[in-house]
Amino acid sequence: MLSVKHLIDTTSLTADDITQILDTAKSFDPIVNGRNIKKVPALRGRTIVNLFLEPSTRTLKSFELAEKRLSADSISMGGATSSVVKGESLADTIQTIDAMKVDMFVVRARLAGTPQVITQNTDAIVINGGDGKHQHPTQAMLDLYTIREHFGHLDGLKVAIVGDLAHSRVCGSLAPALKTMGADVTLVAPPTFQVGDPSWFGCNQTNHLDDVIEDMDVIYMLRVQLERMEGAAIPSRREYNRLYGLSLEREARMKDNAIICHPGPMNRGMEIDAEVADCARSRILNQVNAGVLTRMAEMYLLMGGEE
Amino acid sequence: MDQAILKAVIMDEQAMDRAITRIAHEIIEHNEGADSIALVGILRRGVPLAERLADKIEAIEGVRPKIGKLDISFYRDDFSSHIAPVLHATEIMFPIDGVDIVLVDDVLYTGRTIRAALDALMDYGRAKSVQLAVMVDRGHRELPIRADYVGKNVPSSHDEDVRVSVTPLDEKNSVEIWGIDKSLGGAK
Asked: Which range has the worst mean pLDDT, A166-180, A292-306, B83-97, B129-143?
């Protein structure tokens, strides 16, 4: 059983919580990846609402598949089709859905803090599917799972997270979770993309990818949102690629057993070169596979915790 | 606080070994050999018991049946009140279609574990038949399920605890009954 009722952020999770999630996900692996019948009846009769107030394809589909494989009943609502667009307040939307008796909300929102607010308007369990620049805890769990599958452990690993850290909920969840599990985290970004606080979660910080790439066990590339360039946070696509892009030349300097991760969707040729995304070190598709397993684990453990 | 005490040792190492030998013979007799069968142990204590049975069957027939492990956590009907602290992945590394499967567990009680195991097994394929071997049948069934092979029938009351120990999971091989000693004033 987890120590939290909802999954809102990774900073509330203990090392034991994270280990439980990863171990449970591992036990779903032979079911999802080894059987013709890829589902179990664990959440039969439970109702889950995927409330995606911000567009998403991969996270939503990953949750939907995880729900189906646990035999839960689920419906998905999008921003464009929801009453929030018609001017209904979020609290009213939640209470309306809640009145139809649901057991869990999975929430994706543009505004940081939305999942937390929803917990105050329902008795149902809430999972944060990504809120603004705040947190994306289920992404962090699938990342940890992928890394642990490769190395067999997380403690002592050197992990570089590279890219637009300041605007990244992926980094916001992943870095603290890695630290909780005893990994050594280095944040790599141009000054305009660095997290503001130099002592943030005890992570090392640098502006130079070339200084650290040979030491790292994991290079985690973040997606650079192209619209950021208009804000002049970075001068040009080409310059970013030259200084921070994961090229074949940089890939060749990585440790023998080191791996590459990326949360997707990728900008090939921007933060990661096309050949590198498909190279033997790349764990990008493993991450996608792990997404279903870890989301199943989170839903199973949170639902099992209720009386 | 009620103190659980050891009330009786029902089976010791030797008794368990004899029971396993007998069950091995019964399985072979019923299935006319060991060629068509596979043993699936229900985690956790069903697994070492299945290993022991396989050893005996191999010694008698010269054929070692395949062994699988089944974790039924995701198939339980009391999931919201009973979540397993540690899950052990199911490993059935062979196709079960057309195979005579012998499910192996330590204690048969309400029958709900076996119900869950049957559901889980169906998701792996269509076995030719499913049989059930248990070390102890303690009664109190809540579902219409019975064992084909039983080490020992142990009449028990609900407030007693029937504990089966199997090496190497436990330090010894035994079947014990534990209960609350009401004479010590522990009764609520």
From this structure: B83-97
Q: Is residue B148 part of a domain?
A: yes
What is the distance of C-alpha A63 from the center of its chain? 12
**Which of B83, B91, B121, B126 is the best mutation test for A, with the most CBs of A within 10 A?**
B83
Mean of pLDDT values over B170-185: 84
Weakest mean pLDDT among A94-98, B6-10, B59-63, B78-82: B78-82
Scanning B102-161 for CB atoms below 8 A from A yields: 119-120, 123-125
Helix (H) or strand (E) holding A78: strand A73-78
Enter the pTM of the model.
0.88
What number of other Cβ atoms are within 10 A of residue A44's Cβ?
14
Range of the domain at B144: 4-79+101-178
Specify the CATH number for the domain of residue B138.
3.40.50.2020
Write the pLDDT tens digit of every residue in B99-123. Answer: 999 999 999 999 999 999 999 999 9
The sign of the torsion formed by the CA atoms of B27, B30, B31, B34 equals positive
Which member of A26, A35, A306 has the closest CB to residue B124?
A35
pLDDT at B186 over 50: no
Task: Tell me which chain A residues have a C-beta less than 8 angstroms from the C-beta of B80.
Answer: 303-304, 306-307
Query: Which residues, including other chains, have CB under 8 Å from residue B170's CB and lie 6 or more apart?
Result: none
Tell whether A1 is within 8 A of chain B (Cβ).
Answer: yes
Question: Which of residues 125 through 184 in chain A touch B, CB cutoff 8 A?
Answer: none
- Give A137-174 pLDDT, tens digit per residue: 999 999 999 999 999 999 999 999 999 999 999 999 99
Residue predicted with more confidence, B27 or A89: B27
Number of domains into which chain B is organized: 1
- What average pLDDT does this structure show over A291-306? 89
Whether residues A34 and A58 share a domain: the answer is yes
User: To 5 degrees, how large is the angle CA A23–CA A25–CA A31?
Assistant: 120
Host H or E run for residue B130: strand B129-137
Q: How many domains does chain A have?
A: 2
- How many Å apart are CA B87 and CA A40, to the nearest integer? 14
Shortest CA distance to A288 belongs to which of A49, A133, A57?
A57
Q: Does A9 map to a domain?
A: no
Shortest Cα–Cα distance, A130 to chain B (Å): 27
* CA dihedral for B1, B111, B120, A50, sign (positive or negative): negative
How many Å apart are CA A52 and CA B88, to the nearest integer?
A: 34
Let me know if residue A90 belongs to a domain.
Answer: yes
Could you tell me what percent of chain B has a pLDDT over 90? 82
For A63, the domain range is 15-135+288-304
